[in-house]
From TrEMBL:
This is guanylate cyclase. Signal peptide: none annotated. The chain crosses the membrane at residues 53-73, 346-368. PANTHER family: GUANYLATE CYCLASE 32E (PTHR11920:SF501), GUANYLYL CYCLASE (PTHR11920). Residues 1-23 are annotated as: Disordered. It is found in: Membrane. Its EC number is 4.6.1.2. It comes from the Eukaryota. It comes from Aplysia californica (California sea hare). The gene is LOC101864616. Residues 426-446, 448-522 form the Guanylate cyclase domain. It is a single-pass type I membrane protein. Residues 1-15 have a biased composition (Basic residues). Keywords: cGMP biosynthesis, Lyase, Membrane, Nucleotide-binding, Signal, Transmembrane, Transmembrane helix. InterPro entries: A/G_cyclase, Cyclic_nucleotide_synthase, HNOB_dom_associated, Nitrate/nitrite_sensing, Nucleotide_cyclase.
Length: 542
């Protein structure tokens, strides 16, 4: 073996101890603070982290689903409310329509020429008005509490029936009769305006307003019909105020119906469809309207002409009523489709929400199971890492015993160990006499790892030889009393070549004549103990 070290340690001090591997412990320490799954607290931290990562999208999805469901549910409720408002408006429109007919027929009855011929027609109108009032889904009483007859449906019917029964004894003029019924109708129109608002009706507000405008237009056309009937019955308007009332009613009716068509194209389409085939009716009414506006009958009244005007206006108003009904049907269909769509969305969203609600525990359990598996794997990995480090220490110890440390470190770094030429070195061979027999009965020990130390190698080897002789003198074999070690040493200085032989079982070998001479000196030398160390030293160290 070769030893070129600058200093020589005692044999029991020369065993190499590799550095303790502390990376795992450091990792465990630092990882514990950041949630190392090996520990219980780390497991909880990892569980919280993984659950949070998984649950964040679930919570977001749940929030979006809940928001969509709430919006859809709100739309569904709004559509239901709008549908209720529409049904209420339809029934309210029927009440207004039949009150208009009752008003106009009552005014015709009170006229001097029409009393005998319109009584039966007037009596036919009463039941129709009563049925329309009974069909109202609810009774509005907000802004009309100041009028006693509008405080409830029963009070209104009682008030209306009392007026009907007292019609012949009231001595009421046609104008007063028209004003009385018109004031009642205006209250119902106020209810209609209050029922339909933009905030409540939402997306279908324009169609509902158009529907409302058609009803208002019919009301003013009803006034136009009644006042025009008075004109033809008497051949003139009783007063300038009545004429202005007629003109105002006619203008407002035309403008209101035009407004309805502007709010909804469907009004114009339905009106044109219903008026198709009745173009002559429009021509007749246009001519008679112009005649009434001129007020030039000269006081010549005619019940037949008044009846003709009344019937033609009734036909025209029936066309508007049909337009009103068809518009209500169209709006109802749109609302029904919207409600069905919202209902389907709510069902789909409910299914998604139920699935999410069911999956949440499954996900949490899966995360919990996964965390447990990670913890088990981490513990197993940590155990294997510790075992690996332990084996690595053993391997390093064995490797350092087989090879010089510098050479072993090069092999561990996967570096090629090239052959090296030493121009000067001292080779040391030693042998313990009877070592084979002694080793058979005891355990062997191997010391030594060399390093280059310039020209001090001969002195170091010599010093080591003397140290060995000194140590072996004091060395006793506990289980072999009386048996002493006798050491044979051979040393020689000169050039050598070193290198690692083998890859699976590498060996650090020295080659050259210096090695051979040193080996011969050892094999041919005399075994000696400490007493003969000076003579042995003089003959064996070169």
């Amino acid at each position: 073996m070769i030893d070129n070290r600058k200093t020589r340690k005692k044999p029991h001090q020369r065993t190499h101890q590799p550095p303790v591997h502390k990376s795992l412990d450091h990792f465990c320490c630092s990882s514990t603070l950041s949630g190392n799954p090996i520990t219980s607290s780390g497991k909880r931290k990892q569980l919280v982290k993984m659950t949070s990562i998984v649950m964040i999208p679930v919570v977001v999805l749940t929030g979006l689903t809940a928001n969509t469901f709430f919006t859809t549910f709100t739309n569904y409720i709004n559509s239901s409310q709008i549908r209720d408002i529409l049904l209420y408006s339809v029934e309210l429109g029927k009440v207004i329509h039949f009150l208009q007919e009752e008003r106009d027929m009552s005014a015709l009855y009170l006229s001097d020429l029409g009393r005998s011929r319109s009584k039966s027609l007037l009596l036919q109108r009463y039941p129709e008005t009563d049925r329309a009032l009974e069909k109202l889904p609810f009774w509005t009483s907000g802004p009309t509490l100041t009028r006693a007859e509008f405080q409830s449906k029963d009070k209104f019917l009682s008030y209306l029936n009392r007026h009907r029964y007292e019609l012949d004894t009231l001595n009421q003029t046609v104008t007063q009769e028209l004003e009385m019924y018109t004031s009642l109708i205006r209250v119902f129109i106020t209810w209609l305006y209050s029922a339909i608002t933009e905030a409540q009706s939402g997306f279908i507000w324009r169609s509902l307003v158009a529907y409302q405008e058609v009803i208002i237009a019919k009301e003013y056309m009803g006034l136009e019909r009644a006042l025009g009937t008075i004109f033809y019955m008497e051949g003139r308007f009783p007063s300038q105020d009545i004429y202005l009332w007629f003109s105002e009613s006619q203008d407002v009716a035309n403008e209101t119906f035009l407004s309805a068509r502007r709010y909804s194209d469907l009004v114009a389409a339905l009106y044109n469809k219903n008026i198709e085939g009745n173009e002559m009716l429009l021509v007749v009414l246009g001519r008679m309207r112009a005649e009434i506006r001129r007020n030039d009958r000269g006081g010549i009244g005619s019940f037949k002409t008044a009846e003709f005007w009344f019937n033609n206006m009734t036909r025209y108003m029936d066309l508007l009523l049909e337009t009103q009904r068809e518009l209500a049907v169209e709006i109802t269909q749109v609302l029904d489709e919207r409600q069905e769509s919202n209902l389907q969305k709510m069902v789909a969203i409910s299914v998604v929400f139920v699935c999410v609600f069911i999956l949440c525990p499954v996900i949490i359990y899966a995360v919990y199971s996964l965390t447990n598996e990670i913890q088990k794997y981490s513990i197993t990995l940590a155990d294997r890492t510790k075992a690996l480090n332990k084996e690595k220490k053993r391997t390093d110890t064995l490797l350092y015993q087989m090879l010089p440390k510098s050479v072993a470190d090069q092999l561990k770094r996967n570096e090629v160990v090239t052959a090296e030429n030493f121009t000067e070195s001292t080779i040391f061979f030693s042998d313990i006499q009877g070592f084979t027999q002694i080793s058979a009965r005891s355990s062997p020990i191997q010391p030594g790892v060399p390093k280059k130390n310039g020209k001090r190698h001969a002195a170091e080897i010599g010093t080591m030889a003397l140290d060995l002789l000194d140590c072996i003198r004091r060395l006793e074999i506990p289980h072999l009393p009386g048996t002493k070690f006798k050491l044979r040493i051979g040393c020689h200085s000169g050039p050598v070549v070193t290198g690692v032989v083998g890859s699976k079982m590498p060996r650090y070998c020295l080659f050259g004549e210096t090695v051979s001479i040193a080996a011969k000196m050892e094999s041919l030398g005399k075994h000696n103990s400490y007493e003969g160390q000076y003579r042995g030293k003089a003959s064996n160290i070169m």
